[in-house]
């Protein structure tokens, strides 16, 4: 099966993060020949060091990666399956060539992940082209068997369990990256979120708390809020600063496997967007999600839809602690005040995280559901 996957990077790393993860999985696990068209190779190279940001065409792993200049670069051959990630528009001449192909390709629009219930009614709906004999299908990632599912590589749980059981291996891995080993009862948190005014008082709260905390921060948009808490003018990758009970280590960006290891190493993870949000769930540890902000607070509806599902089987006190902390963080105020209650509920949330992660793959992961869907259409 040949597949062209198109990705237009709107901002940050989530668009390419999801597209790259899916391209690799379809290649490695499903045996598809993947060609990934990306309009922003610089962002891609930040999360995949094997990418040459200046190459018009290259092979990374076994995936063919093409620098897509919309309106200029046009695919020469039409694949069996054509995926446009997040509604990026396909070139008109490519659509024309799709229509002229002897067997029309399966055309998929891969949508953003949402836990909202309407997703079940919209997943897999066809949309006939207004002029050409082509049909595009909306493929909605989601939670539940009537959606497109969520991205998860085969064997990920085993890899995570091996990592989390190997304290010496973890210490060696971190030491090789200049991060000192865990000190006694020290707890670790990762912080990968957008700018957020709740971060500065929260870090100051950790600095004066009864527990030693290490916060590991990939060098990203939140750094100014972190620097403010520590009384620093600026922070950069490699910096390590102490304030009372708190030590903050600023990390360089790594590839996606390295990012997983960060999440697997921490007691609590703070993540954002779409892909790191899912990776925190696969880490099976308590997490806070800084959801991508949208106009008119539309993101708060999405946040609540997720929290409703995620907390459905939790007891009232644990649910309240989690939901209150999530709301405070996403409203950019009050995380410091609600942090201790959230942390007190982490033993329950850790157990819950394990069960939740296991349940999300009933009905298959996203790549498996996508392959079945495309194969059925092609028959
Ligand atoms: O970067 P994000 O905020 O991305 C997105 C985009 O903004 C997108 O337009 C928006 O619609 C979406 O959010 C909701 O967050 P996300 O999705 O978590 O993507 C981050 C990616 O970066 C993820 O694949 C993990 C990866 N990553 C690394 O590979 N190495 C690193 O060191 C870090 C910190 C992240």
From TrEMBL:
InterPro entries: EarP. Signal peptide: none annotated. NCBIfam families: efp_Arg_rhamno. One of its GO terms (molecular function) is translation elongation factor activity. The gene is earP. This is Protein-arginine rhamnosyltransferase. It comes from Crenobacter intestini. It comes from the Bacteria. Belongs to the glycosyltransferase 104 family.
